[in-house]
Structure formats: C-alpha cells, structure tokens
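User: Okay, second chain of the day. Same drill as before: sequence in, structure tokens out.
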Amino acid sequence: MAAVTIDHGWPLRFEAELVRLGLQPARAHELSQETMQQAAESATAPAQLFGPAHLYARQLLSALNDPGGWPQSGTDPRCGYESAPVLLRLDGVGKRYRRRTVFTDVDLTVRAGQVAAIVGANGCGKSTLLRICAGLTRPSTGTVHRTRRVGFVPQDGGTAGWLTPAEHFTLFGAAAGVAPRRARSTGAHLAGRLAWRPDPRQPVHQLSGGTRQKLNLVLGELHAPDLLLLDEPYQGFDQSTYLDFWQQVFAWRNAGRAIVVVTHLLHELQNVDHVLDLGAADGQYRTPGDQQ
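Assistant: Same drill. Structure tokens below.
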C-alpha cells in the first residue's frame, strides 16, 4: 500500500476559513478535528478526500447555516414527502443527568422515505439521543412520538459471543414473532447484501469487529421495521462494505422507511435529508428539510 502524504497545513486552512466565514473558533476546531479523524480512518489525504480546504469549509458552513441547503441524494423530501407519514417526531427533547445537561430543546421530524443524520463532537449526546428515539432511555424534557416497528442498531454490543449468527437470527426473530426457519433465511439474505456469508458453526466471539457490526445491522432489520435507528453502524467496515452500507440505506429510503443515523462522517451528509447538529455553537439544533 502506498504511503499517504499528509498536508499538515490543510486542517489549519480549513479551520481558519471556517472562522473567517463567521463560525466560532471552538466549533471550527471541533469540525476540523472530526474531518481529520475521518481522513485518518480512511487512510486518505484530506485534500484528496474533501478537496481544497477553503472550498470544503464554505460548502460545509453553507450546509450548516442553510436548512434547505444540504445536497440531496435522490428525491428532494420537500417535493413529494410532505404528505408521507411521520415515523419519528421529537418536540423539545432534553436530557439531564443530575447537574449535567447533555442537550436541550431538540426538535426533529422524520417522515417515511427520509434519512436524518445526528452529528456533533464526541460527548455531545448523540448516542443518548438515539436511545431516546428508540425508547430505551427516557428524556428529561419534551416528548417523543415514534412508529411501533423500530429497529435499533447500537454502536457496539447487542450480541452474545457464545451464539452463532444463525442462532441470533432465530432468537431475535422469535422476539418479533418471526418463525425460526424464516428468521434464519431472512438473516442470511440480509447478510448477503453486506457481502457476508455467515459460517453456521462460528460463534460471534470469533468474528471480527466489522463482521459483528454487520450482524447488528442484520438483527436491526430482521423484523422489517418502519424506522431504523443506527449508531455509527459502519465501525470496522472496509471501503467496499461501507459503500454497500450506504447503498442499503438508499434501498431502505426508497422502500419508504425512515432512517436516523449517528455519524461523524461529514462528507456523507450529502446522502441525507435532515441534519441535526448537537454540537451547534449557538446551542440551536437545526434540521434541514421540513419542519413542523
């Protein structure tokens, strides 16, 4: 593999341009760190991955400041989805642990056929908010309305190391009222979409981290939910599987499902319809697309 030449001035130019365009320095630094983290994870020079620093800064800031300005992949949700059913709605949601406030006044509406991304710096509460969306954690304030059929994919965990993938399919299928044979065949089919053929004799603890995450994705989709909640579901994926994952997201969207994904991959925001920034410097949480 050829060595990646890192331009150490790229993040400085990127951050400086964000500040010049009016972003607060602390938030500009956070975005610069997140961008460089993604470049490091993909083993690609930032200039090659994102383009010139000043142009990427303008594109990103324009998207953050313009609720209707996120580039769309596929049909514009404002042209045809206005009448689609709301599958998730948050009104004034906040979370507080004793004396620490994690976030406040979060509003989000996601309709059938739409994808929403939750972004922000580490520790701002992205995973906590997703668990609130799933009904696994109670909000301190606000209300949550969701469809009944929900699939939740955690960032890690959620599986039993001594069971095989097929046994997971049977177990999770039983919880959703799916017959064992159908659950196993459905699980194998969904795994194939992620370029994975489970070994019927291999327990989960012998799987790689990326393959365990594929299993989590399959388990989240096994009962055909209307709403999918994904917490950085691509951890450990290679480039090919990562692209397969986003193709699957598009397939879910086209099938009329709603998807909410926690992500720090800023360059993938062109693939979503809403962006909820929990790290917004002004404390306001913006959702591009429709507002109710």
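The chain is about 35% helix and 20% strand.

User: Thanks, on to the next one.
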